Prior knowledge:
Layout: H1 3-11, H2 22-34, H3 48-56, H4 60-71, E1 85-90, E2 93-99, E3 104-108, E4 111-115, E5 120-124
Antiparallel strand pairs: 1-2, 1-5, 2-3, 3-4
Amino acid sequence: MTVDEFVAAEAARPFAWGVTDCCSTADRWLQTARGVSPISSDEWNGSREAAMECITHPYALPARVNRAMRRAGFRRTPGPKPGDIGLVLFDRRVCIAIRTSMGWSSRHEDGLVGAPIDNFWKAWAV
Length: 126
């Protein structure tokens, strides 16, 4: 399955915290692409409350993602390619996103989030 096929299939699923939120979607991609689940090895519980805690504390999500990706053995990349994972800036919020052939794709309870290719803060090679 290509990354674009994965994102298209995920976009058809309804949003649910801990199932199809940005973290769960990125983690599912990593399981599909590499057979590794960084989030399941971290202290994520998938609840809306945990997500809101990350969203309302500016450095909580980046710190957790950094820790999870490092523990899982992923290396940062300055030039993300389709299939890589990144922290992107969108509408004054940080999201975990998947790099597709068109840009970055993520999920939020408001719907799908899309960001231009160069609009990332940190990225990890998948």
